[in-house]
Specification:
44% of the residues lie in helices and 12% in strands. It has 449 residues and is of the alpha/beta class. The strands form 2 sheets. The protein has a 7-stranded mixed beta sheet, with helices on both faces. Strands 8-9-11-10 form a 4-stranded antiparallel beta sheet, covered by helices on one side. The mean pLDDT is 97. Bound molecules: pyridoxal-5'-phosphate (PLP). Pyridoxal-5'-phosphate (PLP) binds next to helix 6. Belongs to the group II decarboxylase family. This is Glutamate decarboxylase. InterPro entries: Aromatic_deC, PyrdxlP-dep_de-COase, PyrdxlP-dep_Trfase, PyrdxlP-dep_Trfase_major, PyrdxlP-dep_Trfase_small, Pyridoxal-P_BS.
Length: 449
């Protein structure tokens, strides 16, 4: 099965045709979920001892499995955080798959690592990090946050006074669930910082939490630059002041919102981000790269190497060289060159196109906010900092929200699941797809009348 025959060639053409057709669809079909029983009926027993052949396998995917997967790039997919890759990035993902590149080490993947580092540098410049900053592309924000926090703890314990082992993280309840997950994995404790009336962490609130609990027990402060549920950016500059004063690691989680750094209309909301010790942004969210791709950056990458480099005799040849090995900056060893599709699209389209596309989604969000404000049956819950909008349908129960959401998907008119805040069910749009139009927004809002 490792040979290349006429049959393999024909299959390759079929697969490329399928991929090309999917990429050319406009709009893509929204599609829907399915039950296991549904899928058993059409695809149960697909794997056999003798094999079915490539074409039947592709057909199975094309005719059944693909239809049971929602298209996260549909312009009316506004749930969670959608993923709307550029055509260039999505296409280049095929090339990465075809190229068998090991991107964990410079020795094996120099060209890919070099390119990934260029893309990381663009992000580091947006953040305002110094020339020495660096990191790698990891699977997602969850692994990015965990890796940064593992580094923060190692650095803090290195410098802690005799007998002191910092074990706490300060973050608001608006911080992402992956921070709590990191704490569980690390056996660390998350101490909640109360939010102000704008749902932000501020330096003043952080200072009180540190002083009340003993600043020496903390190894990191996690600020969020674009909370997932509301798009709130914490007051980064005043947080940086407090971190600096107490000598605590300042991590900024920009998994969703970090992309806004490329948008002049919101850039000033991030003041202070340049003072962070580590930073993440997911290009698979608002930077138009395919899954799965998180950019993880450190101000001082050497601290991450201490925390993450794996030592084994078969790896000595890599570790003994003075090379930049991406695997040294995160949890995990083997890695796909997952930053390459993003790099390719940046090179092909230029960074101005990114600014334009991000501004476009911000513009549609402002339009949505105004449309909600104009309708007497709707109410904005908190004005949008970025491209997430949370709003209330007056007089609706939780069931009403769910019935409306289910109906939208059944009619293939949109995928907009409800969220909740302080026990109340609410509607939420996450707009990261530049193909989402004003008409898409008004159609969905009309459906709530
Ligand atoms: C999405 C998100 C994460 C987690 O990222 P994954 O790529 O889903 O692992 C972390 N933090 C924030 C703020 C997010 O929006």
């Amino acid at each position: 099965m490792h040979g290349f025959t006429d049959e393999t060639k024909a299959l390759g053409e079929d697969i490329l045709r399928y991929a090309a057709e999917r990429l050319a669809l406009d709009p893509v079909p929204l599609d829907s979920s399915a039950t296991k029983a549904d899928l058993d009926a059409v695809a149960g027993g697909a794997i056999t001892a003798k094999g079915r052949g490539g074409r039947p396998a592709l057909q199975l995917f094309e005719e059944h499995l693909a239809l049971a997967c929602l298209s996260t790039d549909h312009p009316r997919y506004l749930s969670f955080i959608p993923c709307a890759p550029t055509r260039e990035a999505a296409m280049f993902d095929l090339v990465v798959g075809a190229s068998s590149i090991y991107a964990g080490s410079w020795l094996e993947g120099a060209g890919a690592v070099y390119a990934e580092n260029q893309a990381l540098r663009w992000i580091a410049d947006l953040v305002g990090l110094p020339d020495e900053a660096g990191g790698s592309f990891v699977q997602g924000g969850t692994i990015g946050n965990l890796s940064a926090l593992v580094t923060a703890r190692a650095a803090a314990r290195e410098h802690a006074a005799e007998g002191v082992r910092p074990y706490r993280i300060a973050a608001t309840v608006g911080s992402h669930s992956s921070i709590a997950t990191a704490c569980r994995v690390m056996d660390a404790e998350q101490v909640p910082v109360p939010m102000n009336d704008r749902m932000q962490m501020t330096g003043a609130n952080l200072r009180k939490v540190l002083e009340d609990n003993g600043p020496e027990t903390f190894f990191a402060v996690v600020a969020t630059a674009g909370s997932t549920n509301f798009g709130v950016i914490d007051d980064l500059d005043s947080i940086a002041d407090v971190c600096e004063e107490f000598g605590i690691w300042f991590h900024v989680d920009g998994a969703y919102g970090g992309a806004g750094l490329a948008a002049p209309s919101v850039r000033d909301k991030y003041t202070g981000v340049e003072r962070c010790d580590s930073f993440i942004v997911d290009p698979h969210k608002w930077l138009f790269a395919p899954f799965d791709c998180c950019a993880l950056l450190y101000r001082e990458p050497a601290l991450a190497r201490v925390a993450h480099t794996q030592h084994a005799s078969y790896l000595d040849v890599l570790n003994d060289a003075p090379d930049w090995n991406p695997t040294d900056y995160s949890v995990g060893l083997t890695r796909r060159a997952r930053g390459l599709p993003f790099w390719f699209s940046l090179v092909a389209n230029g960074t101005d196109a990114y600014t334009t596309a991000i501004e476009q989604t911000l513009e549609i969000t402002r339009f949505a906010e105004a449309e909600v404000g104009r309708r007497d049956y709707l109410e904005v819950v908190r004005d949008a900092d970025l491209s997430v909008l949370v709003f209330r349908r007056l007089d609706w129960s939780t069931q009403d929200y769910h019935a409306w959401s289910d109906g939208l998907l059944e009619r293939q008119e949109g995928f907009v699941v409800p969220t909740s805040h302080e026990g109340e069910t609410l509607a939420r749009f996450a707009i990261v797809n530049p193909r989402t139009t004003r008409e898409d927004i008004t159609a969905i809002l009309d459906s709530m009348a």
